[in-house]
Amino acid sequence: MELNSRIFVAGHRGMVGSAIVRQLEASGYGNIITRTRDELDLTNQQAVFDFFKTENIDQVYLAAAKVGGIVANNTYPADFIYENLMVQCNVIHAAHLANVQKLLFLGSSCIYPKLATQPMAESALLTGELEPTNEPYAVAKIAGIKLCESYNRQYSRDYRSVMPTNLYGPNDNFHPENSHVIPALIRRFHEAKLNGDKEVVAWGSGKPMREFLYVDDMANASIHVMNLSNQVYKDNTQPMLSHINVGSGVDYTIRELVETVASVVGFEGSINFDVSRPDGAPRKLMDVGRLKVLGWEYMVELDQGLRKTYNWFIEHNGHIRVK
């Protein structure tokens, strides 16, 4: 990328999009184009087409998405599949019509089958049934990958896809019901500490293993993949694979995660695991071998990232009230 390239970051207020903007700015890119949802509704096809016609965009980071935890995915499946499909279709097709040659689509590790061999390699895509609780969201993300593949094949575009593992960090969603596991735990332990609670109950046995990646690492990886030469990228995404896993390649038990969050927050009570609650898949780990070959590895360890995230949470969530 040239430092004066007009780079559109879709979803710049979200956790990943805001991290990409921070890293682009820190790297000297001074022509970053953003729009709030009020300024540009990405589900509105005509509005998106008009935007690309007038803004002379050179490159796109498609980080806009409707996201949420297991409760949100179960409660609003129609919203998740509709909104994500519309955003992806509109942005990718409008970018093509405006002759934007380079685009990076951000997907999710939930694209892989529920019982995929661990660690999950890129080749596992479409080899088995998806996890039912987030299937609509996963189908939308798979469609995004295939959109990029198809425009590359038919129109020789350079539209790339990265599939992140579980992400966390500044600008995450800390909603008490609709958030993912790390922000949910941070808020729960924070409120328990303020309340003086003697106990926090965590769901499940604590035995399942999960992988996590700090969002600034994800942003760094995204820019790295976008900047790879076309030949290097193609040589490492064959056969017929246009997506790359992004993760740490390291996983932890849920018990380890819960105990680390409690320590970071400063909760001194007891932690009990409710084994009557479901555990989910026993393990979800990404195979990040392809990304390592392409010259990128994660930098932020889990405890360090959790401390950064908790500090951000404290700074931006003074409105939270407890009993």
Can I get a quick summary?
It is an enzyme of class 1 (oxidoreductase). Helix content is 42%, strand content 15%.
Which spans have pLDDT < 50 for at least 5 consecutive residues? Answer: none
Query: What overall form do the CA principal axes indicate?
Result: globular
**Distance between the first and last residues' Cα:** 51 Å
The CATH homologous superfamily is termed NAD(P)-binding Rossmann-like Domain
Q: For the record, what CATH class applies? A: Alpha Beta
Structural class: alpha/beta
* Helical content band: 40-55%
Mean pLDDT: 93
Q: Strand-and-helix sequence, N→C?
A: EHEHEHHEHEEHEEHHEEHEEHH
In total, how many beta strands? Answer: 12
Provide the domain count.
1
> Biggest sheet, in brief?
6 strands, parallel
Helix-strand blueprint:
Blueprint lengths: L6 E4 L4 H12 L5 E2 L11 H11 L3 E4 L7 H6 L1 H21 L4 E5 L28 H21 L2 E7 L1 E3 L12 H15 L3 E5 L5 E6 H13 L2 H6 L7 E4 L4 E3 H12 L4 E5 L8 E2 L4 H5 L8 H15 L7
Parallel strand pairs: 1-2, 1-3, 3-4, 4-5, 5-9, 6-8, 7-11, 8-12
Antiparallel strand pairs: 8-10
Walkthrough of the structure:
- The chain has 323 residues and is α/β, with parallel strands linked by helices.
- It has a single domain (7-316), classed as 3-Layer(aba) Sandwich (Rossmann fold).
- It has 11 helices and 12 strands.
- The strands form 3 sheets. The chain has a 6-stranded parallel sheet with strand order 2-1-3-4-5-9, with helices on both faces. Strands 6, 8, 10 and 12 form a 4-stranded mixed sheet that branches. A two-stranded parallel ribbon has the order 7-11.
- Helix 1 links the parallel strand 1 (7-10) and strand 2 (32-33).
- Helix 4 (77-97) runs parallel beside helix 5 (135-155), helix 6 crosses helix 9 and helix 9 (254-265) packs across helix 11.
- The longest helix has 21 residues, at 77-97.
- The N and C termini lie far apart (51 Å).
